[in-house]
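Hey, sorry to bother you again with one of my protein questions. I've been staring at a protein lately and its backbone has me curious. I owe you a coffee for this, so here goes:
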Amino acid sequence: MKKAARLLALAATVPLAACTAMTHITTVQHDAQVSIATSKETTTPRSERFSTTSFGNYEFKAEAPGKEPFYGILPLKFNGGYLALDILFFAPATFFNLREVYPYYEFDLDKKHVRYKKNPEEEWSIFVPLKADEEQGRQALGKR
């Protein structure tokens, strides 16, 4: 009976753990702040958890004294493993968890780009928001 209870507890925690992802947010500029639409935190550097999503985005606003605010949406990574598990065990979950934040982001307000990566030892990838991404970020966070 104890074995069944352990399996049930494990089965209940695995889907819950898959619903969020941790990320570390930094900036090139020392006095910059980064606002993300679903978060109340703005300080950098910081570590924060974000929910996985399939259709949504995470809009951001990065700002520093004397610099024009930088708006956009975070690049998100696709979860192929989650898709396979969703298909096998619970197809409606595909509406919630196909994309998640990368573990590392670095914002550069001067160059107006976001660097991101999965692992600390790999090279940064660079994301430059499109005009539509900037507008989406401005609409979501422009009044903050």
